[in-house]
Amino acid sequence: MAKKKLPGHFCKVCGMRKSNESFSGRGHAAHICKACSRLSPARQAEEMTLHRLENLPLRRLSESEMMWLKNRTHDHRPEVKSLACMVYAQRFSRQARNQKKQELSIQTLTLNINGEICDSYGDPIYVKENYQVSRTPPTVVRTQEDGASQTIAPPPKILAKLLKWTVHTLEIFWWGEDYCAPADAGQEDETPLWSVHVEYSNGEVQDVESADDPPDHVSELLFALAELFE
Ligand SMILES: [Zn+2]
What is the phi/psi pair of residue 113, to 5°? Predict the structure, then answer.
């Protein structure tokens, strides 16, 4: 079956499909609409570059696409440069994170919650709990508000899976970056509503605390740990 042809014509400058009337005779062949053809050649080229930046494929970029993007971060046109920097930072941080995850394995983890979180029905509940997790030997200690503490020894496989999920899906290593705005740093008198302390097998140690309500990933970790005690 023949491919259905879309109505109108594509303009490579503004990146839009426009009616045939929006193109002059010459414009049709050049793929530049009347409105865009009134722009200077320099401006047309800039528009095209901005569109290409906005529409970069979501898949992993090829070497040459990556190089093109990298070069645009030094572009002399301020608009191109700032958009390219933004796109590049997004792409690069995703790639860098995925790479970093490969070398992270949690040895011990402490989670402290002292605030309101949403339960699975979306209702806020007050939680004051502390969890201490250790991979070897596999133990989880839960201390509740009244000071009572409980220790369990989950199967190593279950615990290993949970810790892996905490790194790869919850991205715990970046909680400080993702959830703790630098503005928080000055407010030391505020009691933290949640905090984590993590020690990784490669020797890295992470401490994060925040006076803001626990974000979803923090609640998810709390629920997963609480589930071990059911
Ligand atoms: Zn156009």
Answer: -125, 130
CA 203 – ligand 1 centroid, Å: 55
Q: Rounded to 5 degrees, what angle do the CA atoms 182, 188, 192 make?
A: 85
- pLDDT band at 32, cuts 50/70/90? very high
Same domain, residue pair 184 and 223 = yes
Give domain status of residue 3, yes or no: no
Average pLDDT over residues 199-228: 93
Residues with CB under 5 A from ligand 1 (ion): 11, 13-14, 33, 36
pLDDT band of residue 185 (cuts 50, 70, 90) is low
Q: CA 210 to CA 114: how far, in whole Å?
A: 11
- Same domain for 121 and 175, yes or no, is yes
**Distance between Cα 51 and ligand 1 center (Å):** 11
Report angle CA 160, 166, 171 to the nearest 5 degrees. Answer: 145
Cα 9 to middle of ligand 1, angstroms:
10
CA of 4 to the centre of ligand 1 (A): 23
| Placement of tokens 């898949």 in the chain | 59
Ligand 1 midpoint to CA 74 (Å): 26
Place of tokens 């002059």: 24
Distance (angstroms) between ligand 1 centre and the Cα of 3 equals 24
Q: What is the mean pLDDT of residues 151-159?
A: 96
Residues 149 and 50 in one domain: no
Q: Tell whether 61 is covered by a domain.
A: yes
Same domain, 214 and 112: yes
CA of 64 to the centre of ligand 1 (A): 27
Please check whether residues 134 and 159 belong to one and the same domain: yes
User: Could you tell me if 166 and 216 lie in one domain?
Assistant: yes
